[in-house]
Design brief:
Helices cover 42% and strands 10% of the residues. With 313 residues, it is α/β, with parallel strands linked by helices. Strands 2-3-1-6-7 form a five-stranded parallel β-sheet, sandwiched between helices. Strand 4 and strand 5 form a beta hairpin.
């Protein structure tokens, strides 16, 4: 990882970051937020490829092992070691939660323009401390994916039984385990996570669906570019999308590996399809997911009716 690379951003990303003072930090973090295995990495790779195109770096595509150039991992262990004064594994969950606003202020201060930051955090409070500091937040991009597909992808990612993942996805206040190279995150249940980011009232949040990224890439990624005040030509946009395709990412992982792949997972870029749950989940498993998340699934457009087990997209 190259979390601390302070690269010069593009013109669009540099707009209106604000000036920091001793008492008032800049509101310059743009969160790339999602529940795990929902498309967060894909968005970060697309943005890196788009910025390369805008900077005239047209040879080749973004190295998937160099995603710290324009996007930071908020939950990286080095950040929390600095804030805590000790290794995070020596700290309690409450100490990590208390350090989180300080870590985010450090990230904000270290970037000259807007800071794109990856997070799987549920928006809210953890041990009484904010998971996302609005004092340094400018906006967010939130990507959501059908929980039926999330369950399958997440199970492969963690090399755990699908039933265990389904139970986790229905557990409010769930924390991820401490791992390398990241600290534990409060992600909550799938429905809780989505509702928390959709309910943010004091900062703009741009909602993207994984399925739209797959089925309508030009319109979906053009909307993201516009939201971030980037102005690519149609050719630049299409090139960035092509260089961020699943085939390209999978080939890179095959040839070079991927630093963000957990040791338990065989592949990070495994299938990249919509609706794969139909061949991977039993009827009972699918029904359990829908029953747990029907209200939010219907709100996002994953259920055509509120009937459990019927009308699933």
């Amino acid at each position: 990882m190259t979390d601390d690379v302070d690269a010069e951003p593009t013109e669009g990303i540099r707009d209106a970051a604000g000036d920091a003072t001793r008492d008032r930090p800049r509101q310059n973090i743009v969160w790339i937020a999602s529940y795990p295995k929902s498309g967060n990495t894909w968005i970060r790779i697309f943005l890196h490829n788009l910025m390369r195109e805008l900077r005239g770096e047209t040879e080749g595509s973004q190295d998937i092992n160099s995603l710290g150039l324009f996007a930071i991992w908020e939950h990286s262990i080095p950040h929390y070691t600095r804030a805590l004064g000790k290794r995070p594994e020596e700290a309690t969950l409450e100490e990590v939660a208390r350090a989180r606003p300080q870590v985010q202020r450090m990230i904000s201060a270290e970037r000259r323009g807007l800071a794109l930051a990856k997070t799987h955090l549920c928006f809210g409070r953890d041990h009484g401390y904010p998971t996302i500091s609005l004092a340094v937040t400018r906006a967010a991009v939130y990507v959501v994916r059908n929980p039926l597909d999330v369950a399958v992808s997440y199970a492969h990612h963690c090399d755990r039984p699908i039933d265990a993942i389904i139970a986790d996805m229905a557990t409010p206040g769930l924390h991820t385990p401490l791992g390398v190279p990241h600290v534990s995150e409060t992600i909550g249940s799938w429905s809780q996570h989505v509702a928390s980011w959709m309910g943010v009232a004091h900062r703009p949040v741009y909602l993207m669906r994984y399925e739209d990224m797959m089925e309508h890439p030009r319109e979906t990624f053009a909307g993201l570019a516009s939201y971030l005040n980037l102005r690519p030509t149609v050719e630049q946009l299409d090139t960035a999308i092509q260089k961020s395709s699943f085939e390209e990412l999978s080939q890179q992982e095959e040839e070079r590996g991927f630093r963000e792949r957990p040791a338990a997972a065989k592949r990070f870029f495994r299938q990249g399809i919509v609706g794969g749950w139909r061949d991977a989940l039993t009827e009972q498993q699918a029904t359990k997911i829908v029953r747990a998340h029907a209200s939010m699934m219907q709100r996002i457009g994953y259920l055509r009716s509120s009937a459990v087990g019927g009308g699933v997209r």
